[in-house]
Design goal:
By secondary structure, this protein is mainly alpha-helical. The chain has 6 helices and no strands. About 18% of the residues have low confidence.
């Protein structure tokens, strides 16, 4: 055997570089497959689940707007402080409604698995004290923010980003309402 030839055992094993390249390629393929469009048994359920989540988010924002309106009606002195926050909630509602058909959230896209319609529910009660009213709004914002944070775990990516953003804004609203009440 000539001494200049490499032993045969080194040629039969894959090189470390080719193993790393293959592993990186496989990982990249898996990531791309995970980010691609829906396929498989859940593909048909995903859009309707997203519609239900959007419908519920619209309904929640509508209820929160009603709370803001009730507090503003009972305490007009809070208008300067609450008007910008209420306007943000209205924009959040519009953002969630953007992906829905022109039906009401309680009858159409929310479907039978959503909460019962609250359109007939009476206006929220408002404490007589301005600070207590602001604390009540802060509690509602915080509770809704927590629910949206939980809901984003089951949402498709685009809706999850929207839910996360709105949940963060709700937490900021709760902070502003609480700190301003001190």
């Amino acid at each position: 055997m000539p001494s200049h030839l490499t032993p045969s055992w080194s040629r039969s094993r894959p090189r470390r570089r080719s193993l790393l390249t293959g592993a990186a390629g496989a990982a990249g393929t898996a990531l791309l497959a995970g980010c691609s469009g829906a396929s498989g048994p859940d593909a048909d359920e995903r859009p309707s689940a997203a519609r239900r989540l959007r419908g519920r988010a619209v309904q929640d924002s509508t209820e929160l707007l009603a709370r803001y309106d009730a507090v503003l009606a009972a305490h007009p002195g809070l208008r300067a402080r609450l008007a910008p926050l209420r306007a943000e909630v209205a924009r959040h509602k519009a953002a969630f409604a953007e992906g829905l058909p022109a039906e009401t959230p309680s009858s159409g896209p929310a479907g039978p698995s959503a909460s019962p319609p609250t359109a007939a529910s009476p206006a929220p009660s408002v404490p007589g004290d301005e600070k207590a009213a602001a604390r009540g709004l802060a509690a509602a914002e915080r509770e809704l923010s927590d629910r949206r944070g939980t809901a984003l775990l089951d949402a498709p990516p685009e809706l999850a980003r929207l839910l996360a953003s709105v949940a963060a804004a709700g937490a900021a609203h709760a902070y502003l309402l609480t700190e301003g009440a001190k």
